[in-house]
Amino acid sequence: MIDLLATRGYFLVAFLLMGVGTYMLIGSPNLIKKVIGMNVFQTGIFLFFITSAFVEGASPPLLSAPEPYVSPLPHVLILTAIVVGVSLTAVALGLIVRIYDEYGSLRESEIREVAADE
């Protein structure tokens, strides 16, 4: 087990990032901190996919490349996911600005109280 963690420490870091992001999403009542937690969770997922695509001793997939070679598909998927993540963050922050203008708070409990009174 120790050898696995010593050679594959990036998996531990990826799962740690996912855990911290999940904790921030669930545990924080502030909407901005939830968006930050979502971004930390996404970073953990990105790290996991990129590091799991690594092949020891492999080369880029060129026409004359010897076997084994590294598949570019995970890297392309992560580039697309980064663009989607940035767009999602921008939309979430825009909605949070509108929520703050409407309710005057970023805490979930206060927003629920104001919404229940209306």
UniProtKB/TrEMBL annotation:
TM spans (from-to): 6-26, 38-55, 75-97
The compartments listed are: Membrane
Is Transmembrane helix found in the keyword set? yes
Top-rank taxon of the source lineage equals Archaea
Q: Which UniProt keywords apply?
A: Membrane, Transmembrane, Transmembrane helix
Q: What is this protein called?
A: Putative monovalent cation/H+ antiporter subunit C
What is the taxonomic lineage of the source species?
Archaea, Methanobacteriati, Methanobacteriota, Stenosarchaea group, Halobacteria
A single Gene Ontology CC annotation of this entry is:
membrane
What is its membrane topology? Multi-pass membrane protein
